ATP-dependent RecD2 DNA helicase
Amino acid sequence: MPASEQAEVTGQVRSIFFQNPTNFFKIILLHIEKISVAWDDDDIVVTGTFGEVKQDDTLKCVGHLVNHPKYGHQFAADRYEKETPTSKAGLIEYLSEKQFKGIGPKTAERIVDRLGTDAITKIVKDPNVLAGVGLAKTVRDDFVDALKRTYGMERVMLQLNAWGVRASLASTIYQRYQEATLEKLGENPYRLVTDVMGVSFRRADSIALSLEIGPTDSRRLQCAITAAFAQLNNDEGAIYTNAELLLRVAEHILSGGVMSPLPTLPELANVLTQMVQDKTVISESGRLYLASYYEAEWQIASGLHTLSTAPLKPKLTMTKVKKTVLAAAKQLHIAYDDSQVAALTTALTQPVFLLTGGPGTGKTTVIRGLIAAYAELHQVSLDPKDYTETPFPIQLAAPTGRAAKRMTELTGLPAGTIHRLLGLTGRDRSEMFKEPGPLTAKLIIIDEMSMVDMFLFRQLVRAVTPGTQLVLVGDKDQLPSVGPGQIFADLLNSGVLPAAYLTKIHRQAAGSSIVALAHTINEGDTPPELFKNQADRSFFAVSAGQVPEVIGQIVTRAHLKGFTPMDIQILAPMYRGPAGVNHLNEVVQEILNPSTPDNTKEIVVGINHYRIGDKVLQLVNDPERNVFNGEIGRITAITPAKQDKQHRDRMTVAFDETEVDYGRGDFNHIAMAYATSIHKAQGSEFPLVILPVVHEYGRMLERNLLYTAITRAERLLIMVGEEVAVRRAIETPGAKRTTTLPQRLQQQFGAVSKEDEPANPSTEPAEISQAPAPPLTYKMILQHVIDPMIGMAHVTPQDFMVQDDDKEG
Ligand SMILES: Nc1ncnc2c1ncn2[C@@H]1O[C@H](COP(=O)(O)OP(=O)(O)OP(=O)(O)O)[C@@H](O)[C@H]1O
């Protein structure tokens, strides 16, 4: 039968081979009572996500047969139903199970005699019905708790199943809301879209349909508008948008739902106006923000203002600072150029300081001088051994583990990720909305600032104690952060914070032309010798279709010349297509780590066939296991479930500093890494970078993308592709993200010019801000009739700067 055909199997659980306690994934052996497809055995292995299941339970599973490459045919259940005991004998047997401590068959019988076959429902509803059964208080309390837990979960899983939610998602939803799941979803099933990763609008919409929520229900339209914001925030990094674009995206999202007819534009616009009045959306001069984004901008601006105006102790004289800088330069044997000296003296005397420059302009060299001079001026030891009891007074951090490690290598001091500095796990979105603990260091230096997004930076600013010196270092022309905003560029553009722009290139090793090339491209120029081979870079002119083969040849030759898989990095901007990351990974894996008679163990995850020796990339921060987003490691061990005592697929990956075990539940934390996206390579450098550039990359062909990719190459750069695509990328400046942080900063620092000034709501004429929301038509919206200040009467930005601990998203 075709693998995708829907099938049903009912049977009794013979044994449970494996269960993952964290995500309810189970592998079960079922003794078949009934099966809807041809099957010539009495038993079948069923995999899927199940609630509480035990031996002898009868399950009806809906799913499809799959042919597992290692385990052969088995049944993948998308949903299931469990027969609950309805007979008296069945219920007594169920209640006497060992999960209900202290309840034996006798007691169970007494309970069922007294309360009938719907005893469970009665007890869960009102535990007092157990009075008179003769249970000791502790036994009774434990019994009620266990019953609520198992019964609650079972009920939730069954209901979600009935709504068509696949079992794996059902378990994630249950983990989020626990026993309150059905109540919460009954109130508003659309909350799933914001609360639970992986729930689409369409999925929530189909649950809403089962709950008889109508197509123009305000909860539905609000969800579509919020999802439209999320799409613009995440896909374009935008902080605000306008009504027209927002409503168009919301309409598109609604058209992907399961209900009809589509709401009219005025209906949708009225809900948006209501959201503005409720202040879940902030409207300002024609710009629309989700409230949390609006707040974050103001909090960053006000936080930086507080830090910038806090007095530094002790006060240092300029003469002393300059003298110390000279001494530090001597000690480090560096002749700092004038702009570097100016950067050092400002950094040492200002509470907040920005340092930017392209590759090889000496940013790290300035950081080294800064640390040495700071230590001298403040008489602090730089020996970590002196800080066994107290924290190190200088804190170095970067957005990725690789970048932090590089800071340590170049400065000799401990450095960590910003997440670790702030005690963030990176797993739970709500932690970005809680007050972070104060940081104790007196000098904090953050590198690779261009990668830091708005919410992470907001947490950093909130955590820094006034009186601390904060130095933010980066290359403003690199790709902006993956998350929303363009913080570093905005801080520089605001013009209100002391900053140094380093322009002189110091890394001019003989025969090295990559750094100079990067600088020229960054200016928007195509250097005439770009397509001619140099000692350290070359260009192979080929079409997109030839890219994989040519890259294969280059990798083969580089490998023969002694480059290890870790040295060679292929960077591409997209995942799909012949010249995309996915296909290039397949091609290069077959060259560098093919399947051989000695290397037969494989674990298949999606399109990847992982083998021992494969190069993989960590995709999420995992501070508990000391491995962070962007780190690259190699698989050192693989245990397929068949060979594992607990029937679990397992992999071990060795990173620079740690070895990490992965199970099926967290295989999505890693990806194959012979080729990676350019975004994922930010903050890392590699001896040999192979960079395909072809017109198939379309909209991705932008200058800052190319610039970022080229600056990842330490020693050798090999470009493969089409001249015209390279020229197009150089001529296309990266799109600006819509943000208002520069204006916020200017206003906080009192440097705002009248025409830039964000409108001050309190001075708006009362009749505008209090006017009832007019019914909106498409034409009116196109003319931007959504009153920019609707709902903003007597609201000031400061209203958004106070406690927001309990707000999310
Ligand atoms: N004033 C200087 N005199 C001589 N050499 C310098 C000077 N400043 C920096 N260098 C040298 O230039 C090279 C690049 O400097 P550095 O690594 O600090 O630049 P960077 O801006 O941090 O570069 P990247 O962003 O690529 O890491 C280093 O070898 C450094 O020693």
User: Anything to note?
Assistant: Residues 753-809 have pLDDT under 50 and may be disordered. The pocket of adenosine-5'-triphosphate is lined by residues 334-337, 340, 357, 359-365, 506-507 (CB under 6 Å). DSSP finds 28 helices and 25 strands in the chain. The first strand starts at residue 7 and ends at 19.
